[in-house]
Amino acid sequence: MRAGMNEWNNADTLVQFSVNTNSKNTAVAEQRADSWSGVCISTVSGVTTLRFDIILNERNIRAYAANLDKTISAVFAHELGHVISLRDNPYLYGGSYDSLMNYIYDLNNFSKIPEYDVISVKMMYY
Ligand SMILES: [Zn+2]
């Protein structure tokens, strides 16, 4: 999961995540019977995220991951995208653009935050 966090830190945005064991935010990997790979539950006030809880469903991720570390990193980076207010963007424009927030994004080939998502963050915060 730390790798997914570092991908945001290395992207060309002002976004920086860090681990703080005193934080009320949580990020865990669990074995869930659910069909989702990750979920982010956020408490938001206006444009400020007050708290988030991310759960990765390792059982579901293992079902399709060609490279488990890379896929977990991608799913976690996707959920962190929600923390900074990116939304899922399924199938818009035919789903043809390269976005980590796109449901058809190839998680097995994740290597960095796609430019589409970098631009989306810049449009919100710059
Ligand atoms: Zn999502």
CATH architecture: 3-Layer(aba) Sandwich
What share of residues are in beta strands? 15-25%
The number of helical elements comes to 4
Using the alpha-carbon principal axes, give the shape. globular
Order of helices and strands: HEEEHHH
Classify the fold: give the CATH topology.
Answer: Collagenase (Catalytic Domain)
Major sheet? 3 strands, mixed
What count of domains describes the coordinates? Answer: 1
Distance between the termini: 27 Å
Question: What's the CATH first level?
Answer: Alpha Beta
How much is the average pLDDT? 91
Q: How large, in whole angstroms, is the Cα Rg?
A: 14 Å
Helix content: 25-40%
Structural class: alpha+beta
Instruction: Pick out the low-confidence regions.
Output: none
Care to describe what's here?
The protein is an alpha+beta fold and 126 residues long. The chain has one domain: Collagenase (Catalytic Domain) (3-Layer(aba) Sandwich). It has helices at residues 2-10, 58-64, 68-83, 115-125, and strands at 26-30, 38-45, 48-57. A 3-stranded mixed sheet has the order 1-3-2. The chain starts with a helix and ends with a helix.
Short description:
Helices cover 34% and strands 18% of the residues.
How is the topology of this model organized?
Elements: H1 2-10, E1 26-30, E2 38-45, E3 48-57, H2 58-64, H3 68-83, H4 115-125
Parallel strand pairs: 1-3
Antiparallel strand pairs: 2-3
Helix pairs in contact: 1-3
The structure holds zinc ion (ZN).
Features:
126 residues, alpha+beta, Collagenase (Catalytic Domain), 3-stranded mixed sheet, globular, binds zinc ion
